[in-house]
Amino acid sequence: MLGLKFRRQHPLGRFIADFYCHELRLVVEIDGCIHDLKQIIEYDREREVQIKKLGLKVLRFSNSDVFHNPHLIELAIKEFMDSKSGVSL
Fold first, then answer.
1. Domains in the chain and their CATH numbers?
2. Closest Cα to residue 50, out of 10, 14, 6, 7?
3. How far is CA 7 from CA 14, 18, 49, 67, 74, in A?
4. Cα torsion at 34, 70, 27, 9 (round to 10°)?
5. Which three-class secondary structure state does DSSP give residue 74?
6. Model confidence over 15-73: pLDDT tens digits?
7. How far apart are CA 30 and CA 43, in angstroms?
8. Alpha-carbon torsion 24, 52, 14, 76, what sign?
9. What 8-state DSSP symbol labels residue 58?
10. Beta partners for residue 8, in sequence order
């Protein structure tokens, strides 16, 4: 995507990222409906804090976005790239 390499199911400390782009230091998480449960929401928050302590950025998307609005995911990643580089593609 966008000429970037994403690793799937990439280990980050004690966590596994759904997708990880080393070049951008970006974690992309795809959340199913289980992530709407209170205990999972709390776990995800703590997990994200720990991942950010590694100097990484986390973008979250729903399964629905993946299937119905994949262009929004690409747009969000592009916007993140642009914000890091200050250059628009």
1. 7-85 (3.40.960.10)
2. 14
3. 16, 8, 21, 20, 16
4. 70
5. helix
6. 999 999 999 999 999 987 777 778 888 888 899 999 999 999 999 999 999 999 999 99
7. 15
8. negative
9. E
10. 19
